[in-house]
Amino acid sequence: MKRNWLIIVAATVALALALVTGCGNANGDSDADAMRDTGAHAIEDSAWQITIVSPTGHETVMTIESIKAMPAVDMEAELRGEAATYTGVLLGYVLGEAGIEEADTVTVTAADEYSASITGEVAFSENTILAYAQDDKDMSGDKESGPLRLITTDDTPQVWVGQIIVITVE
Questions:
Q1: Checking phi first, is residue 8 left (phi over 0); if not, alpha (psi -120 to 50) or beta?
Q2: What residue ranges define each of the domains in the chain, with the CATH number in brackets?
């Protein structure tokens, strides 16, 4: 009886390992490749993450921590007559880190499913960022706009999507 139990456990472990190592996305890349240098534990432990979907359907997951580690820029922008300084990362840089170098349209979707689309030209502009701070104040606690918000001076503020969870590139 004990031997049968060991065989069942060994077979279950072997099957589980085969399933885990064989898993990948539609492009045949492993989940580790899709997460790049962020690592599985970093994704699981992150306070916020976004998924970037390429024109081919390849998905790259990035954490708020990995985005904050990218080169930061400050940008002045005005919303409802009030000027502010936003700190974040150029959207074009983030897309480049996901292996995307050009786009016709980029759609940004929030946690509440609100979305807005911008042209590829606006997405790769030096005036379009994923902001994580406003006037030197971290936006993580901002329930409406944080922790990541698209900010651009090349389009209307209606495209300033907050609480970003998905960026889809076409």
A1: alpha
A2: 38-169 (3.90.420.10)
Q: For 42, how many CA atoms within 13 A lie in the half-sphere containing its CB?
A: 14
Those residues whose C-beta lies under 8 Å from the C-beta of residue 54, and which sit 6 or more positions away, are 60, 98, 99, 100, 169
Nearest to 140 by CA among 129, 130, 148: 148
DSSP strand pairing (49-53 vs 164-169): parallel
pLDDT at 96: 98
Tokens of 167: 């960026």
Quickly tell me which residue has 């074009």 as its tokens: 92
**Residue 114 near residue 100, CB atoms below 8 Å:** no
Please state, as a whole number, how many other Cβ atoms lie within 10 Å of the Cβ of residue 132.
22
Q: What are the pLDDT digits (tens) for 40-54?
A: 445 567 789 999 999
**What are the backbone angles phi and psi of residue 14, rounded to the nearest 5°?**
-60, -40
Q: Give pLDDT tens digits for 64-87.
A: 999 999 999 999 999 989 999 999
Model pTM above 0.90:
no
Query: What is the maximal distance between C-alpha atoms in the chain?
Result: 77
CB 65 within 8 A of CB 42: yes
